[in-house]
């Protein structure tokens, strides 16, 4: 599910609502750049992308860690335990 959200937010970042300005001094700027709704959209889109990508990375890291620690016989370290000094 996190990869679907990441895909949607990535797409939303490149398909900006109401498009971009074409006049020369502000060429390439979003049409709604000064509107509160667009600013909220940009902030929420960034937060959704960041949290979904973090979730994907954590799931992949846990997946690889769980299989790598299970391969070593006699190793009783869990994902949540810290090494003892």
Strand content: under 5%
Count of helix runs: 2
What structural category characterises the helix and strand content? mainly alpha
- Please bin the fraction of helical residues: 55-70%
How many domains, in number, for the residues? 1
Number of strands: 0
Name the helix and strand elements from N-terminus to C-terminus, one letter apiece: HH
Terminal CA distance reads: 39 Å
Q: Unreliable stretches, pLDDT < 50, 5 or more residues?
A: none
Shape by Cα distribution: elongated
Average predicted local confidence, pLDDT: 77
**CA-based gyration radius:** 21 Å
> What kind of sheet is the major sheet?
none
Notes on the protein architecture:
This protein has 85 residues and is an all-alpha fold. The chain has one domain (2-63). It is built from two helices and no strands. The protein has helices at residues 2-14, 36-70. Helix 1 packs antiparallel against helix 2. The two termini are 39 Å apart. The model has no long low-confidence stretch (mean pLDDT 77).
Lay out the secondary structure.
Blueprint: H1 2-14, H2 36-70
Helix pairs in contact: 1-2
Give a brief outline of the structure:
By secondary structure, the chain is mainly α.
Summary tags:
single chain, 85 residues, mainly alpha, 56% helix, elongated
